């Protein structure tokens, strides 16, 4: 690396946090402005009437798909268990993954995919290195699926919805090509890396086999598609599925950049604005509201008592062990 390139790289690393904060602030302000405008235009009574108008069969099918989405996401932790060879049982692994996913989609990545998952694995006796490996494996898998889904941008299914945002087809197709290239690079590295372990800043990183990479890709693609399918069904199939998928991917990035837990308000704004002229805003908001109920709020209501029960049980066991230890020490003295 030449001195000039090294200098530019150092400058980029120094300014990256400021650029990220500026970008997040800009997107947050834009979302807030859209929310204020949307809130002043919407008759929420009409939204709830639209919710009541969604067919029961549609809600039932969307509920089954939501369950399938959690199963697909839990499968990622199962793959991590196979890759890392950790000692946690299969059923506990799947339950932890599903619970952390419920927290993740409602409260954000740091509390859900990282915080809750780390806490549960550690409480149930998994080593620190293994828990960190599970989190890293799950994060890589999730975004690997996102990169594969970037093909939806490359093939131009979404650009028509972005014209009002000043984003042209060339920009979205370029972004799609980059995302797919990243996914292909990961699979290529898994297939060709002669050395399975790599050292990065003192940390040992290992690539899985190409078959594991393909399994990661399949589960992550299924997970992202199920989210879009739930919304597609609740929109009563009035919007082409590729367009719904593209808007779902865009809204997830917007929610990530704004750091709003669960993308609350962000998803609504993106969908309403993107589907303007194709669907009534009340119907779009009704679909997103029911998506939140089925995919976010009901699973959280199930996961939260389970998490509290595990916390209470572990604390009682520790108190009991401490009491027995103190009793033995007293008898020894």
UniProtKB/TrEMBL annotation:
For this protein, the parts annotated as crossing the membrane are 20-38, 50-73, 94-116, 143-165, 177-198, 210-235, 244-264, 284-308
* Keywords tagged on the record: Membrane, Transmembrane, Transmembrane helix
Spell out the coiled coil positions from the record. none
Presence of the UniProt keyword Transferase in the record: no
What protein name is recorded for this chain?
UPF0104 family protein
Q: Which species?
A: Castellaniella ginsengisoli
């Amino acid at each position: 690396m030449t001195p000039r390139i090294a200098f530019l790289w150092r400058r980029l690393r120094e300014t990256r946090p400021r650029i990220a904060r500026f970008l997040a602030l800009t997107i947050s302000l834009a979302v807030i402005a859209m929310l204020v405008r949307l809130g002043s235009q919407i008759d929420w009574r009409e939204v709830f009437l639209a919710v009541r108008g969604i067919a029961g069969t549609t809600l039932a099918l969307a509920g089954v798909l939501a369950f399938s989405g959690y199963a697909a996401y839990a499968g990622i932790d199962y793959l991590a268990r196979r890759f890392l060879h950790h000692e946690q049982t299969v059923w506990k692994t799947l339950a932890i993954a599903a619970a952390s996913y419920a927290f993740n989609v409602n409260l954000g990545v740091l509390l859900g995919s990282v915080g809750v998952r780390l806490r549960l694995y550690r409480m149930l006796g998994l080593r620190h290195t293994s828990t960190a490996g599970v989190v890293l494996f799950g994060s890589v898998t999730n975004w690997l699926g996102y990169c594969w889904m970037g093909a939806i941008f490359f093939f131009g299914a979404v650009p028509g919805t972005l014209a009002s945002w000043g984003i042209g087809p060339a920009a979205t197709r370029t972004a799609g090509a980059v995302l797919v290239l990243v996914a292909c690079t990961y699979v290529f590295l898994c297939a060709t890396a002669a050395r399975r372990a790599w050292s990065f800043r003192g940390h040992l990183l290992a690539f899985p086999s190409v078959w594991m990479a393909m399994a990661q890709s399949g589960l992550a693609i299924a997970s992202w598609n199920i989210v879009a399918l739930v919304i597609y069904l609740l929109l009563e199939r009035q919007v082409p599925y590729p367009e719904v998928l593209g808007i779902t991917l865009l809204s997830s990035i917007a929610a990530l950049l704004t750091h709003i837990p669960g993308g609350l308000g962000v998803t609504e704004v993106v969908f309403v604005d993107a589907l303007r002229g194709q669907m009534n805003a009340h119907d779009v908001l009704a679909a997103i509201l029911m998506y939140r109920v089925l995919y976010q709020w009901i699973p959280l209501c199930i996961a939260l008592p389970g998490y509290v029960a595990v916390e209470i049980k572990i604390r009682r066991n520790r108190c009991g062990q401490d009491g027995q230890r103190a009793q033995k020490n007293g008898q020894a003295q």
